[in-house]
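Subgroup meeting minutes
Present: P.N., E.W., G.H.
Scribe: E.W.

1. P.N. recapped why we're keeping a running log of single-chain structure predictions: easier to compare across weeks, and new members can see raw inputs and outputs side by side.
2. G.H. added today's entry (148 aa).
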Amino acid sequence: MTYEEFYKEQYPVLLKAEEQLKNLITQFETNENKKKIAYCSSRIKSPESMKQKLLKKGEEPNAENAVSKVNDAVGIRVITSFVDDIYKVSDWIILQNDIEVVNIKDYIAYPKPNGYRSYHMIIHLNDLSLNAEIQIRTIALDFWANLE
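Output recorded in log:
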């Protein structure tokens, strides 16, 4: 099943959200006098992954539930060189007028028992009425997470 088939009329909204997240990070880099972001990647959750997540939550696997019951249909991973830069990016995101922070999980300060470290933000994109996830971690933490 393609993204368009699963997400239907929600797919263009998800594409807009993905683009908005990329622009947000570009704007951060433009405002900084020193490069803080090594690279970033974005994605729309695959139909298969979204179906599994919705079923696990006890929800009908459809496009409407994908955008209303799940916070990470759209996500971006921001990779920094240093831990301090994670918090600089996060603080800047929090200050944006068109975004509301819904939830923060700071696995940098409070690692998971298995050692996983990352900074997760669930944000609400006000103009699209959609939640999205931002993960921020260092190059070293990203390497470790990918090995796991």
